[in-house]
Amino acid sequence: MREAPTRDAAPDRERHAEDRSSSSAQKAQHDVGMYGLRVRSAIDLQDWPTPPAGDPDVFVHVDAPLPATFDGITFNARTTFENGEVHIDVRGVAQYRAAGGTSIRVAPEPGAKPEDVRLYLTGAMFGVILHQRGILPLHASCVAIDGQGVAFAAPSGSGKSTIVAALLRRGATFVSDDICAMTPVDSGRSCVWPGAARMKLDTPGMAALDDVTDGLEPAGGPRGKFHVPVETVPVDPSPVPLARVYLLTFGEGPPRLEHLNGLEAISALVDETYLLTYATSLGLTSQVFRRAAELSRTLGVSRLIRPRGFEHLDAVLDLIQRDLRDTPSNRSTHHQEMQ
């Protein structure tokens, strides 16, 4: 477990915020494991694994509602940076503040939907916490195949979760959805910690898998996604060694792969870093580049280029599974097209 960065005594405004916290919210504490961290939260973080033994690494506090920092419609957001802290105001949802890699404060707006509050908490705010702790988060979803992690990195709406869901039907094991926290281990490999046992899928993604949204809980946010429970999760909650990262992109022609090496692979991983602009604003650009360079030396990095839509989903899965059978010695910068 990576140690949290040392901090000086909390400033007065941090202590005053503690005093303003809702006493009823502070009574109910939930201990979960998130991205390899032990989290104690005043907000129920559903479906996340049991935490490793030990004292909490991160505390999530709930504060009373705060005055809005700007005018806007629901889900409009404003982010500010001050002294290494990140403050996010999401209209109609909550105000959040992450500090020192150890603390998140949440001030929900009256009437905010719980799923919306949790969405930004478990996504953007914990992405900030990971950066503050020196951990590289990729904007990626991950499965395990034959005990090795395979991640799919891309911006939101690119089909990461749909590909993962389809691979689960072919026997893969679920690891994490949307964020992969890259944790180095003694062997020099990088590993991914198992996440909440669910994925976020929209209606077109569900339709591609011949599933329906009936009875599913909304995932929160403006994209109309749903939480889809998964059953094929690792028996061992330990981190899964990562062997391959596929960078999803759209392009004409048949599904194909472009294997990347060296600086090209590093730059591609940097580009797929979760909340890269936040890391830049926090002065952590060199940290991200260093972590991406370390990661690129221990696994294969490939662009997976395929047409838009899900008509070619089976061909994409076949291409991935054939590529995973290749040996590392065959990895060089080239294009591998469907036969």
Please explain how this structure is put together.
- By secondary structure, this protein is an alpha+beta fold.
- It has two domains: 12-133, no CATH class; 137-337, Rossmann fold.
- Helices cover 26% and strands 30% of the residues.
- Strands 8, 9, 10, 11, 12, 13, 17, 18, 19 and 20 form a ten-stranded mixed sheet that branches.
- α6 (262-271) packs across α8.
- The longest helix is centred in the middle third of the chain and has 19 residues, at 114-132.
- The protein is globular and about 55 Å long.
- Mean pLDDT is 87; it is low at 1-26 and 329-339.
Helicity range: 25-40%
Strand content: 25-35%
Q: Report the C-alpha radius of gyration, rounded.
A: 20 Å
Biggest pleated sheet: 10 strands, mixed
Coarse structural class: alpha+beta
Summarize the helix and strand pattern as letters.
HHEEEEEEEHEEEHEEEEHEEEEHHHEHE
Q: Give the CATH architecture of the largest domain.
A: 3-Layer(aba) Sandwich
Task: Give the SSE map.
Elements: H1 12-20, H2 23-27, E1 30-34, E2 37-41, E3 58-62, E4 77-82, E5 85-90, E6 94-99, E7 103-108, H3 114-132, E8 136-138, E9 140-145, E10 148-153, H4 160-168, E11 173-176, E12 180-184, E13 190-192, E14 198-201, H5 203-208, E15 217-218, E16 226-229, E17 240-250, E18 256-260, H6 262-271, H7 276-281, H8 285-296, E19 300-306, H9 313-324, E20 335-337
Parallel strand pairs: 2-3, 3-7, 10-17, 17-19
Antiparallel strand pairs: 1-2, 4-5, 5-6, 6-7, 8-12, 9-10, 9-11, 12-13, 13-17, 14-16, 15-16, 18-19, 18-20
Helix pairs in contact: 6-8
Provide a brief overview of the structure.
The chain has 339 residues and is an alpha+beta fold. The protein is 26% helix and 30% strand. It folds into 2 domains: 12-133, no CATH class; 137-337, Rossmann fold.
